[in-house]
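Hey all, sorry for the wall of text incoming. These are the two entities for the joint prediction.
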Amino acid sequence: DAKTTQPPSMDCAEGRAANLPCNHSTISGNEYVYWYRQIHSQGPQYIIHGLKNNETNEMASLIITEDRKSSTLILPHATLRDTAVYYCIVSVGGSNYKLTFGKGTLLTVNP
Amino acid sequence: DADVTQTPRNRITKTGKRIMLECSQTKGHDRMYWYRQDPGLGLQLIYYSFDVKDINKGEISDGYSVSRQAQAKFSLSLESAIPNQTALYFCATSTAGGAVDTQYFGPGTRLTVL
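and here's what came out:
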């Protein structure tokens, strides 16, 4: 699986958009980009995934560059409850589906 | 009720003891996973199972064993616990097949080996 690079920490003001970057320059054509988050030692929670196109769901938006070498997770209106470690993961799907977690980005949402 | 449950939630044990961590799920998923997390680090995969008859080693399986008793149950054992196995342990499940599926995690078990 390809490796990812994320900043170790970021801050965001409550109510503002939080934009979390991820570099995955060695991503293969069949690898998806997944985002999970972990709130203070709880079990990680799935947020969103994408292959080529931008994606949006009730939690967030995922913007993937055209060359697929980087992506950005956007939380449109961050709240204090969004303070968490956010993991960007690239992985193939199907029978080889496994997640490799790095250290992620600690997002702190400030009042 | 939670879809993925882990027991116990906290456990303190001594070096050399045998420990079993249990995971149960009501999601009807075929795939189950065990991860460990050390302080300040991401999760590392210990074992995974794609169905009842399938068991696979992950990145850090040494010192651990697993049992998939049923589709809904996946247990992790430490045959002889050692202090560097002190960590947070997570069970996860996911659906089988398809190009993409997502993993659902339990609340975790905090294990301390003295």
